Amino acid sequence: MKGRSGCTARRTEKEMAGGRGMGRYRAVFCDIDGTLLTRDHRVTPDTAKKVRELSEGGIPFVLTSSRMPAAIYPIQEEIGFRGPVISYGGGLVLDEDRRPLASIGLSQSLAAELWKEFPPETEESCFCAYSGDLWMVTDRRHPLVRAEEEITSVCAAEGTWGELLSGAAPIHKLWGVGPEELLDETAERLRERFPQCIFCKSAPHLLEIMDGRASKSQAVRILCREWGISPAQTVSFGDNYNDVDMLRAAGHGVAMGNAPEAVKAAASEVTEDNDHEGLLLALNRLFP
CA 77 to CA 43: how far, in whole Å? Predict the structure, then answer.
C-alpha cells in the first residue's frame, strides 16, 4: 500500500498488533552511510531538523554503523543531538555519555591468523584494523586510506596492533577495501576456515570481518533492555546486507530505495533513496 510519503509499505504482524506513530514507536535505529547520508556524505538540513525534533521529543535516535565511534560522533555534533551509538556493526555499544554497554571483538591472535590470509595490498586494495577509537593501517599514504580519512574526518595510525594497542584489547573490526571480486573471493575463502567470524559487505567495495557474536540486532536488544522497551516498539533504517538483521529485529524496518533487492525484501517498507530524502519521508510519516 502507499503511504502519504509515497513509500511502499508491507504490513507485518508486529505492525498490525498496534497503531503507528509517536505512540507506537519509541526509538529509532538508523544506519549512516547510504541511509542517513547522501552519496556525497551529507545530512540534509530538513533531515537534521527532524532528527533533532525526535531526540528533543524523547524518541532516542541511535546511529548504527560499522564505523568506529570517532567517525560517528562528528555526525551527531553536526546534526546537534546526543544519543547512544552502535559501532562496528554491533561490536561496540555506547550510551549517550559515551560509556561502553557492550564490547565484542576478535582476539589479537585470531586477528593475526586472518591477516596472514589477506591478499597483498596494491594501489587498488588495502586492509586495516580497528579497536575502539583506534584505526590501524600499514601505510597512511595509501590513496584508499587517505580517501577514508577525508570521508570520516578520522586520522589513521600507522603501525601494527602489537605496537599500538595495550594489553589484550579486542580487534573490533578488520576492514578491506578494493575490487568487489577480490573481496568476495577473500570472504569466500576465509568463511569456511573461520566460522567464528562474520564476513559482511557494507558496500560492494568494502569487506568487514568481525566477531560472529556481534550484530546490529543484538545491539538493538541491549539498548532496548536499557530503556525498558521491546524491539517491537522501535523503527530501523538501513540500505545494505549488514542491516538486514536490524531491519528484521525492529517492529518496523525501513529499507532505502538504493538498497539491494534482498535487503528490501527483508524490510516492512521501502522508502525513497538516500539522495531523495528517503529517511525524512519515512520519519515524517511514522512520526507526524
Answer: 12
Task: Indicate if the pLDDT at residue 14 is higher than 60.
Answer: no
User: What's the CA gap between 14 and 252, in Å, rounded?
Assistant: 8
- Same-domain check for residues 155 and 207: yes
Among 246, 247, 250, smallest CA distance to 270 is for 247
CATH number of the structural domain spanning residue 23: 3.40.50.1000
Q: What is the mean predicted confidence (pLDDT) over 243-262?
A: 97
Contact yes or no for 51/17 (Cβ under 8 A): no
Q: For 237, which DSSP code?
A: E
By the 10 Å C-beta count (0-12 exposed, 13-18 middle, 19+ buried), 4 is classed as exposed
Give dist(CA 230, CA 123) in Å, integer: 47
3-state helix, strand, coil in the chain (%, to 5): 35, 25, 40
Q: Is residue 1 domain-resident?
A: no
Q: How many domains does the chain have?
A: 2
Whether residue 213 is predicted with pLDDT greater than 90 in this model: the reply is yes
Contact between 216 and 242 (Cβ < 8 Å): yes
Containing domain of residue 183, as a range?
108-211
Q: What is the largest distance, in Å, between two alpha-carbon atoms of the chain?
A: 56
Q: Is residue 2 assigned to a domain? A: no
